[in-house]
Amino acid sequence: MLDNLKNHYKKLTSNNLDNLFIKDPKRFNKYSVNACDILLDYSKNWISKETLRLYQKFLKQIDFDTQKEKMFTGEKINTTENRAVLHTALRNSSDKSIFVDGKNVLPLIKKELNRIEKFCNDVHGGKFVGHSGKRIKYVVNIGIGGSDLGPHMVTEALRPFHKTSFPEIFFVSNVDGAHIKDTLSKINIEQTLFLIASKTFTTQETMANAEIAKKTLLEYYQNNHSAIKSHFAALSTNKSAVEKFGINKNYMFIFWDWVGGRYSLWSSIGLSIALFLGMDNFKKLLAGAENMDNHFRNTPINENIPILLAIIGFGNNNFLQMNSHAILPYSQHLHRFPSFIQQLDMESNGKSVTKDGKTLHIPTGPVIWGESGTNGQHAFYQLIHQGTQIVPCDFIAVVNPQHDYIDSNNMLVANCIAQSQALLMGRKSEEVIREMNNQNKSDEEIKKLLAHKTFKGNRPSNTIILKELNPYTLGSLIAMYEHKIFTQGIMWDINSFDQFGVELGKVLTNKILKHINKNSLINSNDCSFDSSTRGIISYVNSNLIKDKIK
Q1: Phi and psi of 88, rounded to 5°?
Q2: Is the domain of 118 the same as that of 251?
Q3: E strands within 331-372?
Q4: Which of helix, strand or coil describes residue 203?
Q5: pLDDT score for 72
Q6: Does the annotation count 378 as an active-site position?
Q7: Are residues 269 and 323 in the same domain?
Q8: Which is nearest to 88 in space by CA: 65, 64, 71, 70?
Q9: What is the pLDDT of residue 258?
Q10: Which end of the chain is more exposed for a tag (fewer CB within 10 A), N or C?
């Protein structure tokens, strides 16, 4: 089937993209979908009715619908860790049962959601206060990876929905002490709630920052350990470690091993979102995601937004050798969105073996990168338009902004639409010559500049339009990418829900850290390190300022 698709793409790409529009003036109507408050225009890609037919056949061949249902119904599709994958259950508002190991998980989810709501109400209403009796004015979320990127992105995206009576939010992720130091300088410790977001409560970077926050608090309250209970909450599953840290068990909010880190913002990891935006908005976020879940689960391929995005990306990556993908949101509030999708996609599908452990000889997850528009236009769009590498793009725009500067938003949306058109059409030599003739350029100047000012176009993109960026549509947008990534994982026959590649570096870090902390030179005969690593450690140790080592 893959050979059929490969041959199909060879035939399809013999036509330039702009020619496809010339041949079919109604191409947009045929290759766009409007669902879940999202318009997807995928017409500026090499895709046809035959493409959709072939992919439909391929998805049937790999039993995609069965694999999809296994995720929604709680089967343990994360085979390497023997876990279910149920982030969709976190936003499931139905009364149907979903069983994991014989236990219906929906009542557990709803119970924890109610606990989060009560805690938010207590903070917002002044019932939960700091040790000195002052209301909570600041929330500092200490986490990393999925415990940081998702909540951070959402709170930035939905900042217009923040009420001044709710706490301001800060996020600390980097183990670089500068991150927590800079954050602590912006808050009043008496009015601060620290959220320690770590499933195991052992995450190295998170716990290092948590200890600094704890030390700072204890110094302020003259080593009164009871103050910890009024300023810390935990998002974790490790009850004993949480209590040992000094946190009140009533302020420990749990999630489950079937919730992956990069899919966890819908769980108690989203407590920072609820505290910043209010529980009503958090529920709307969940509702938007549930809407996309139902769309993905029940809609045919030719109208299914996540599946359409998945097959387009699969074709670009596997048959057209376009191995990177740009996420380009034309909304300043979505400036953290590319980073979030980067983790979601690359940590999920950056795999080189199949589910059965067999080596793959085809490309899998592309390199995901991007920046908010129009900033990106003045940074890397030169490469996108005229570089030797073709980079497929997702342009994301919002019709109605959460501000009153309509003219500036119209300019922003116009830029978004223009960029996708420019990638499609390029700039023909005839146009360049005509322009320079109008500028009274000499024939010699025209000849000199023509190649530099001409670019081919014929570069694919998707355009994704939201009527408005609000909690509901953002929930839909995030879930859309989650399901796109899941679909591609099935197409590549990989496990999208483990991340063992992240762990080796952590093991080696601990080993190296022992030598740095000891400030000792490593014997040149020590075979546990290569010569490069030994040399770097020796250089660091020889240049450490000794009185700063703690």
Answers
A1: -65, -30
A2: yes
A3: 367-370
A4: coil
A5: 98
A6: yes
A7: no
A8: 71
A9: 97
A10: C
**Any alpha helices (H) in 42-176, and if so which ranges?**
49-61, 64-72, 106-125, 149-157
| Catalytic, out of 378, 447, 511, 514 | 378
347 is catalytic: yes
Give the whole-angstrom CA distance, residue 349 versus residue 352: 9
* Confidence check: pLDDT of 545 > 80: no
What are the E-state strand segments in 162-297?
A: 168-172, 192-197, 232-235, 252-253
Residue pointed to by tokens 């639409």: 417
Q: Which domain holds residue 524?
A: 501-548
Q: Is 168 exposed, middle or buried (0-12, 13-18, 19+ CB in 10 A)?
A: middle
- Decide if 192 is inside a domain: yes
Are 64 and 56 within 8 A, CB to CB? no
Q: What is the tens place of the pLDDT at every residue in 248-307?
A: 999 999 999 999 999 999 999 999 999 999 999 999 999 999 999 999 999 999 999 999
Q: Express each pLDDT in 410-462 by its tens digit.
A: 999 999 999 999 999 999 999 999 999 999 999 999 999 999 999 999 999 99
Q: What is the CATH number of the domain that holds 405?
A: 3.40.50.10490
At residue 546, the pLDDT reads 67
Q: What is the β-pairing status of strands 252-253 and 232-235? A: parallel
Two tokens at 415? 């830029």
Instruction: Tell me how far apart the alpha carbons of residues 264 and 478 are, in angstroms, rounded to a whole number.
Output: 12
Q: Residue with structure tokens 């009871």?
A: 226
Checking if the pLDDT of 503 tops 80, the result is yes
Alpha carbon distances (Å) from 193 to 10, 36, 169, 227: 58, 35, 10, 11
pLDDT at residue 525 is higher than 80: no
**377 and 472 share one domain:** yes
Domain count, the chain: 3
Task: List, for residues 23-71, the tens digit of each pLDDT value.
Answer: 999 999 999 999 999 999 999 999 999 999 999 999 999 999 999 999 9
| Tens digit of each residue's pLDDT (9 = 90 or more) over 155-207 | 999 999 999 999 999 999 999 999 999 999 999 999 999 999 999 999 999 99
**Residues 264 and 396 reside in one and the same domain:** no
Burial class of residue 380 in the structure, from the number of CB atoms within 10 Å of its CB (0-12 exposed, 13-18 middle, 19+ buried): middle
Burial per residue of 345-360, b for 16 or more beta-carbon CB atoms within 10 angstroms, e otherwise: bbbbbbbeeebeeeee
156, 205, 347, 482: the catalytic one is 347
| Token pair belonging to 497 | 């829900």
206 lies in the same domain as 305: no
Does residue 8 carry a catalytic annotation? no
3-state secondary structure of 358: coil
Residues 123 and 216 in one domain: yes
**Residue in 30, 163, 186, 506 annotated catalytic:** 506
